Amino acid sequence: MDTGSIKRRFPICLVPIILIVVLLAKNYSATLAAFWAIITLLALSFIQKETRLSWSRLIEGFRKGCVAASGLAVAIATIGVVTSMIKMTGVGIEVAY
Question: How far apart are CA 4 and CA 21, in angstroms?
Fold first, then answer.
């Protein structure tokens, strides 16, 4: 990837970040700010031909995102089980003293 290509694509990545900061500064929830940033990014991607998403690229992106999120969900669920067991058995209190 050359420098010119990066400079052309930079505003597409910068606008959603600025939108997140502005919405969080206006006391919107992080979930809502992320939602609107994603919608804005999808809308901006259609402006340039090289960043325009086809249906196949969009579906592939959703698939990769689901695979990544499922791995993260397994890790978070494991942490939840471990912390619940520590809390229920009282091991945390015993170790603290």
Answer: 27
Sole residue written with tokens 């910068």: 14
Single-letter amino acid code for the residue at 84: S
Reading the block at residue 65, the tokens are 């995102």
Could you give the dihedral angle defined by the CA atoms of residues 70, 73, 78 and 81, in that order, rounded to the nearest 10 degrees? -130
pLDDT, one tens digit per residue, over 15-46 is: 899 999 999 999 999 999 999 999 998 888 88
CA angle 17, 64, 38 (to 5 degrees): 25
List Cβ<8 Å contacts ≥24 apart for 34-42: 40/15, 40/16, 41/12, 41/13, 41/15, 41/16
Torsion from C-alpha of 65, 20, 55, 66, nearest 10 degrees: 10
